[in-house]
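Sharing a chain and its predicted structure for anyone who wants a worked example. Both blocks are below, sequence first, tokens second.
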Amino acid sequence: MEKKTLAENTLKQYSETQTVLNYEPFGDGHINDTFLVKTENNHFILQRVNKNVFRTNALVHNYKVFLDYLDTYQQKENVKLTPVILTTLSNNYHIVDEEGFAWRLAEFIPGTKSYQISSDPAISFKAAEAMGKFQQFLNTLPAEDFEFTIINYHNPASRLQAFKDALSKASESLKQLAKSEIDFSLAHQNIVNEYDAVAKNLPQRVTHNDTKLDNMLFYDKGVLVIDLDTVMPSTVLFDYGDMVRTFTSPAAEDEKDENKVTFRTKHFEALTKGYLKGLKESLQPIERDNLLLGARAIIYEQTLRFLTDYLLGNPYYKVKYREHNLIRTKTQVKLLSAIEQNKTQLQHFILSL
């Protein structure tokens, strides 16, 4: 069945969207399909979750558990952490279509802004502060209530092995084009060893797991966290690390001019202050002491993920051209190199807070 027909069938199952005037693609996410739905009186966000990426049953389960806890928490604390996810006429958060894709509908908040690049340290601070508040809520949730929507999602050792497997299968022409990035990846395997040595002693918490800057919506009342598909057990090291990865460079993730990819210390300091502002006291010393390791590990992991996808022919991430994932790899290499060169200074700053 065509995606358009599936979308229309989904919208019929919500009382709020009985009179749909129009819907159109919205945003530029790598994984899911997102639409802006226009009705006579309102707008909504409709999403189709990629079943080839997420385990649908686990995702549906996690949203139900998460949103039930969230509703209670937001009422008690008088806060709003995320946009509202609407329920269907049968009181479900998702509809699973005949092809196995999960669909959901969320409120659309006019006047919100999202950023792929932070232009001001104040933006980095506010976004990280919001994620810190979100983590304060997540810290109240029992990790055992949640399932893994993606197996081994943040697992540097697993990503390293997948990279090596892809490398063994890749054509010589692709390997030659990516030689510098392949050499870099093999030369920095020590990051995986460092993380594995710490990981066994880290507390397992429910975390967001995809804290890139454009997963936060700025509006007149504050900042909201979106994209909850990866809310599941993990460690705060990766959430902090992905903010470092996506807040600190002034260049897009797929910037072709490597000279534009730089590490901005002021943004690093701002996001670190924002994230730890309300969260620091609830973290264990082993977490606070290894936040920078989380940043190094997540950037290295993302380097491997982009490079692996490139070597395999781009089956995972959406690409606009054949070398798209290789370009993404190059930006990660440039960023990680800068952090490696300044890790002593950066670690000192974190521990000074």
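Comments welcome. The longest helix spans residues 56-77.
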